[in-house]
Design brief:
Distance between the termini: 42 Å
Shape: globular
Order of helices and strands: EHEHEHEHHEHH
Radius of gyration: 17 Å
Structural class: alpha/beta
Number of helices: 7
Strand order of the largest sheet: 3-2-1-4-5
Helix content: 25-40%
Number of strands: 5
Number of domains: 1
Strand content: 5-15%
Length: 224
């Protein structure tokens, strides 16, 4: 039987690329997307497009209303920062408290049911906005937790947390995805899209994406 991986699929270019790497490496993909009340819920439509393009074995979308907690510009009415210095030392208000911990926990539960041995997440420690749950230390700590907190781990079948983009620049991620034949026109990255879904061009995510395509010497298909 082919190995199975549960992939956190947001609809952005990072999760799309991470999933494609797992597919290239021979995994059957089981995609998990979370409707957490994010203001850029349009990304969920992108996740469905990406899942179809990847030919995943199954795609599940779970509703988990993090707006009940708030604490982030993505889950409240607080404005999304525009044209923020991307090398600023502070953690921006677009950080959603404990989001990746919550999401990986859900994917871990599904992986046990599927007898999957790998969780795939598209976090990146270089071109990111300072989020603490995108660091190598977090990935390593969650992998240790998965070994301790699951039946599979106790029985000697600990799950691996794969973050294949962790040490790549955004340009390198885009170059990798392009080499795998990915269509980035399917994706959505903007935190604060216009009513018609167009990217704002000013949030951290838009600016990191724009810089990545520019550094890779490639046009962004969403801007054609």
């Amino acid at each position: 039987m082919r190995r199975r991986a549960v992939v956190l699929l947001s609809g952005g270019l990072d999760s799309y690329t991470a999933a494609a790497v797992a597919a290239r490496d021979g995994f059957d993909l089981y995609a998990l997307s979370i409707d957490y009340g994010q203001r850029h819920a349009r990304e969920l439509d992108a996740a469905a497009r990406v899942a179809a393009a990847l030919g995943v074995a199954r795609h599940i979308q779970i509703a988990l209303d993090l707006t009940r907690f708030g604490g982030s510009a993505l889950t409240s009415d607080s404005p999304v920062p525009r044209d923020r210095a991307l090398d600023a030392a502070d953690i921006p208000i677009t950080y959603v408290p404990a989001r990746n911990t919550i999401f990986l926990s859900l994917s871990l539960a599904w992986a046990e049911v599927l007898e999957a041995d790998t969780l795939v997440i598209g976090v990146n420690a270089l071109d990111y906005s300072g989020y603490p749950d995108c660091r190598p230390e977090f990935i390593e700590a969650f992998e240790r937790l998965a070994a301790l907190a699951t039946k599979a781990g106790v029985e000697g079948h600990a799950l691996k947390v794969s973050a294949p983009l962790l040490h790549l620049s955004k340009a390198a991620i885009i170059t990798l995805g392009t080499s795998l034949g990915l269509d980035y026109a399917l994706t959505h990255s903007c935190y604060d899209p216009t009513p018609d879904g167009s990217p704002c061009g000013h949030c951290d995510s838009c600016r990191l994406r724009a810089a990545g395509f520019a550094d890779a010497g490639l046009p962004d298909p969403l801007l054609r």
